[in-house]
Amino acid sequence: MPHSQRKKRSTSSAQKRTQVTDNDGWTHVTSGSNVRRVMRSTKRNDNELVTSEDQDDKPIIGPASAPARLTFEELEAQYKGYRERWVDSETWEMLQGHLGGRIHERVADESSRVNSAVSGSIDGIVCIGLGSPSGFLRDGWVDRRAVSMYQLAALECVKDVLSASGESPPLPRWEIFALGKANHSRTTGKTSFPIYAQDPAFNELDRALLESLGMTVVNHPVAFERLTSNTFLFCPGAERKHLEMLLPSNPCFVLGGPLENTESSVIQTYVEKTDSRVLIPFGAQEHAFWMMRLYFWVQGNDS
């Protein structure tokens, strides 16, 4: 037949790239032929998204790739928009009410001051697994920036509630010097308690943004070492193996999870010692706080 020896023209280069959002909120940029494989992906307990093809090859997470032309000023302006939407949400209104109520009880109940599990002022916030507010993950294939932005807004709002409650103790001078001017309140001029944020996905823009909000970005294992029974643990994306390292410190508050049904005895022990309130769905970005809970110590569960 005529032209029978002619090679067919490859169509691989002409395939269009498609954005696909899976059931866990991850956005993938992929070709049409890979859409089904992406949607078959499963989410492990350790918050690593994997497929059946790479179950044994867990990716190493490094700093996220921010858009080349993105400036700090633009990132800061973006964050302000996310924060405004979070502050105006019913989800934050509900969380603020529960958190404020628990702190009020904690301060008012003098007996808690001699309870080894819940005694003393909150000594700081440790944030694990926030993700990158500015960059793409997995070599540009995964976009979780909106999720991280909303979670960062929640973290800052939690800090404001704790500061307003008078729960934050004054920092020693050496720690004020170490943390820098960023940890001084932008509105009252008072020194706030420390906030340590740790995530291998943080890039330089992320660091600059967090530091502008009075947070200190640290490398492993500094944040783990700062955790005590009087610490507020903010862990929206912490892996199971990390939770098993963090929760034995019995933090007085944990915002993250859900921690139930993880098949981990260490995590379950913490769950059984605490009470919790589930956050109502966040309409602007459900995946950012999906089934997340506020866990807190209750009297009589300090054993």
Task: Report on this structure.
Pfam families: SRR1. The protein has 303 residues and is an alpha/beta fold. It contains nine helices and twelve strands. The chain has a single domain, classed as 3-Layer(aba) Sandwich (Rossmann fold). The protein has helices at 35-39, 72-87, 90-108, 145-165, 173-179, 204-212, 222-225, 240-246, 265-273; strands at 17-21, 27-31, 42-43, 49-50, 124-128, 142-143, 195-198, 216-217, 231-235, 253-256, 274-278, 293-297. It has a seven-stranded mixed β-sheet. Strand 3 (42-43) and strand 4 form a beta hairpin.
* DSSP strand content: 15-25%
CATH class: Alpha Beta
Task: Briefly note the CATH topology name.
Answer: Rossmann fold
Query: Level of helix content?
Result: 25-40%
| Gap from first CA to last CA | 84 Å
Compute the CA-based radius of gyration.
22 Å
How many distinct helices? 9
Biased composition (Polar residues): 11-34
Region (Disordered): 1-65
Domain SRR1-like: 118-296
Protein name: SRR1-like domain-containing protein
